[in-house]
Specification:
By secondary structure, the chain is an alpha+beta fold. The chain contains 1 helix and 10 strands, in the order H-E-E-E-E-E-E-E-E-E-E. The chain has 2 domains: about 40 residues; about 130 residues, Jelly Rolls. About 20% of the residues lie in helices and about 40% in strands. The chain has a 5-stranded antiparallel β-sheet with strand order 2-1-10-5-8, with no helix packed on it. It starts with a helix and ends with a strand. The mean pLDDT is about 85.
Length: about 180
């Protein structure tokens, strides 16, 4: 009888140990799932909306280097775009969409890049086969707060615009 009692005690101890292991693993899995959900769920505060569109003031037949400065601000929600420098600085981390449209000057080709922190990401190209050809491109980028995005010369000469803007740079936060 004593052997039976010892066996039952040993069995009960083993069951308690197994139960404790299961509870511990369950807590760890629950914590991991909560962490995963937190990492992949982002709610954008309506007070943190970020969007801009800017255009150039006038045409240029000679622009051929550096940053294209879009000095006419159409929209600048969140104040991330600087019309003096032509640079967008991310006010918050997130996923952004950037879009450029450029019209080459008369029959001169033009190539411009959307640049993130000095690295070209996409290029818009306007061919010179006819006058005033349009080039466009778009990119989705994951930015950290403080990252910089701008439009940089990649080739050709000049751009065109009119009273209603033709050459523009836009961006907005999507998540």
């Amino acid at each position: 009888m004593r052997e039976t009692a010892e066996m039952l005690q040993h069995h009960n101890d083993s069951m308690e140990h197994i139960k404790s292991d299961i509870e511990d693993k369950n807590q760890k899995q629950t914590a991991a799932l909560i962490e995963q959900k937190t990492r992949h769920t982002r709610v954008i505060d309506p007070n943190q909306e970020v969007a801009f569109t800017a255009s150039v003031t006038s045409s240029s037949s000679t622009w051929n280097r550096g940053t294209l400065i879009f000095d006419v601000v159409i929209t600048n929600t969140g104040n991330g775009y600087n019309p003096s420098t032509g640079v967008f600085t991310s006010p918050i981390s997130g996923t952004y969409v950037f879009y450029i449209t450029a019209v080459e000057y008369t029959t001169q080709h033009l190539a411009i890049d959307i640049v993130l922190n000095s690295v070209s990401k996409v290029r818009a190209y306007c061919h010179n086969s006819a006058g005033y050809q349009t080039g466009t491109n778009m990119v989705v980028l994951k930015l950290q707060k403080g990252d910089s995005v701008w439009v940089r010369f990649a080739g050709g000469t000049g751009y065109d615009t009119e009273g209603v803007p033709l050459t523009t740079f836009s961006g907005y936060l999507i998540s």
